[in-house]
């Protein structure tokens, strides 16, 4: 009997070890169809994945994945909600795989709006999408923040929704401004038919992503998608750090990242989600 229990205990330890190591964080680098390297951070949940979120950080999308004892730290400037560790961890807790995109090897200094809208960018991201779909066989959602919203908006339009289960845009680039004369509504109208979620802070000070412009984006996607939802956020840490209004504070959902990401995850998983998030 004692021998039996020793064997059972050994088997249990082995089983738990396998489960613990079944999912992990790693940086993946793919050679794309146009001869460049496309890297992304892959963060997996403990249990079987329930979906995949392809994340495009804001600003010029420049991120560094720094190895730590427990996974990776995402180092970025102005990455916003789709480039933060708290968002990744919130997705992970909800059973979602988070794949955070870095610029390709020929755009290490950053991705312009023109590049995010290009066929070259589409070629790179299709390589990532094919990899993720083959690895997980789960629905794939795309999430962009601020200037990062041009990537999912362009890619979903160019693919005519193929392989995309839904699109999440946070602090959406909704109107042209002096610095960036472009908005996601510049893309071909009447194409995006997948569900769309718009996440917006009411006190966002960024001229190109102002709350008052959100209705324009909503109407744009309602022409072709039967499901366009919004999550409106207020409060949190709205203090602007530095002179750039499009990097942090309310624009980046500071202090409310986990609540916002958790609500997005519930939307992705077709669960009840809060349509309004109020911080202290």
Walkthrough of the structure:
By secondary structure, the chain is of the alpha/beta class. It contains seven helices and eleven strands. Helix 4 packs across helix 5 (150-158). The longest helix has 21 residues, at 2-22. The chain starts with a helix and ends with a strand. Mean pLDDT is 89; it is low at 2-23.
**Percentage beta strand:** 15-25%
* Category by helix and strand content: alpha/beta
Spans where pLDDT lies below 50 across 5 or more residues: 2-23
How many β strands by DSSP? 11
Radius of gyration from CA coordinates: 19 Å
The H/E string reads HEEEEEHEHHEHEEHEHE
Spatially, the strands of the biggest sheet line up as 1-2-6-3-7-8-9-10-11
- Average pLDDT, all residues: 89
Distance between the termini: 59 Å
Question: Summary?
Answer:
By secondary structure, the chain is α/β, with parallel strands linked by helices.
SSE order and pairing:
Elements lengths: L1 H21 L3 E6 L5 E7 L7 E6 L6 E6 L2 E6 L8 H9 L2 E6 L11 H4 L2 H18 L3 E6 L4 H9 L7 E5 L25 E6 L12 H9 L5 E7 L22 H12 L7 E3 L2
Parallel strand pairs: 3-6, 3-7, 7-8, 8-9, 9-10, 10-11
Antiparallel strand pairs: 1-2, 2-6, 4-5
Helix pairs in contact: 2-7, 4-5
Sum up the structure in keywords.
alpha/beta, two-stranded antiparallel sheet, 7 helices, disordered N terminus
